[in-house]
Amino acid sequence: MTFNYFSFFGKHPSPIFSPNRVFSFLTIFSLISFSSPCFAGDPFRNTNPRNITSQTESAFKALFEEGNYPQAKEYLTQDNNSSNDPMLPALRAAVAYTEKDFSTMETQTLQTIKIAKAIAKEDPLRSNLYLAVGNFLEGANEYQKKGALAALTKLQLVFDYFDKAEKIDKNDPELNLIKGYLNLMLAVNLPFSSPQQAIDNLQTYASPQYLVNRGIALAYRDLKDYDLALTFVNKAIESTPLNPELYYLKGQILRGKGQKENSLPLLQEAVKNFDIALTKINQLPQEAVQKPLQREKRKTLEKISELGTSSSN
Predict the structure, then answer these.
(1) Quick count: other Cβ atoms within 10 Å of Cβ 62?
(2) Closest among 80, 75, 38, 36 to 59, alpha carbons compared
């Protein structure tokens, strides 16, 4: 069912187009690309699988198992530009966004939309799905250039294309994962929405589990339900322990809980997790991850010092 997101959102689209939110959405479809043993090229479907190149699959592993962005970028640069998979330029655009390389992002956005349109006859579901992704990419660009209101019109188109894809196959796992994750971001950030319903839907219909756990941890962090956030981030770390971004996320959650409870042990544990992430800082995007990580560690140490001073007086 089509929904008028423009009238509903009013003046509140900006959280959805913040760097972390945009990158989370742009790459959510790729996070599961190497987790299923059924098909190397298509982890979503047991029938009628779609293929991706080996370089793209390697890039996914570098990004989301290891959190190694430079290695992933190298794989993506090597990949064949003639690929007819719209996932490839969309992922390139996501990496460009983390580097604030908006020119490359715009080029790859246009390529995503071009390929999505080109596969309309042979694969109408994924055509509509990646037209949705492409319009989200364009919305992120519009947000950078013209502000939130310009981006908002693109968000309406995103859901229009989701609706078209659902009419073809509402049970398609790739569609449900991408749309479900965006619904979760919207529910957490916008008024008059139901975060718990979005969380329940993601938990019920999405896969793989480590991606579900990561997404739900992010949601509970933003909702300031730190105990549940810790539960889910720990589950994600169990599945993908090499990714430094997960330790950064755990540090954020512990910091939030420590500040709320004025707890030195929790804040100290937060610093330990920030330090684990910092051991691989050169793997991470400078603007989107490195600088915020360093800033949050510094502020956590300042809070520890403040609480220590207070307790000694």
Answers:
(1) 21
(2) 75
Measured CA to CA, the distance from residue 95 to residue 268 in angstroms comes to: 32
| Region of residue 260 (left: phi > 0; alpha: psi -120 to 50; beta: else) | alpha
Closest CA to 249 of 261, 238, 237: 237
Measured between alpha carbons, how far is 67 from 219 in angstroms, rounded to an integer?
20
Of the candidates 62, 71, 74, 79, which has an alpha carbon nearest to the alpha carbon of residue 27?
62
Contact in structure between 132 and 121 (CB atoms under 8 Å): no
User: DSSP secondary structure string, 153-170?
Assistant: HHHHHHHHHHHHHHHH-T
267 token code pair: 């804040």
Backbone angles phi, psi at 262, to 5 degrees: 50, 50
Collapsing DSSP to helix, strand or coil, 192 comes out as: coil
Instruction: Tell me whether residue 276 is exposed, middle or buried, using C-beta atoms within 10 angstroms of its C-beta: 0 to 12, 13 to 18, 19 or more.
Output: middle
Q: What is the pLDDT along the chain (313 residues), one digit of tens a residue?
A: 343 333 333 334 445 665 556 655 555 544 443 333 333 444 444 555 555 667 777 777 787 778 899 998 888 887 666 678 888 888 888 888 888 888 999 999 999 999 999 999 999 999 999 999 999 889 888 887 887 777 777 888 998 999 999 999 887 877 877 887 788 877 776 666 678 888 887 787 776 677 788 889 988 998 999 999 999 999 999 998 999 999 999 999 999 999 999 999 999 999 999 999 999 999 998 888 899 999 999 999 999 999 888 766 5
CA 68, CA 284: separation in Å to the nearest integer? 6
Question: CATH fold of 208-313, please?
Answer: 1.25.40
| 180 vs 201: CA distance, rounded Å | 7
CB 258 within 8 A of CB 303: yes
Domain(s) of CATH 1.25.40.10: residues in the chain: 208-313
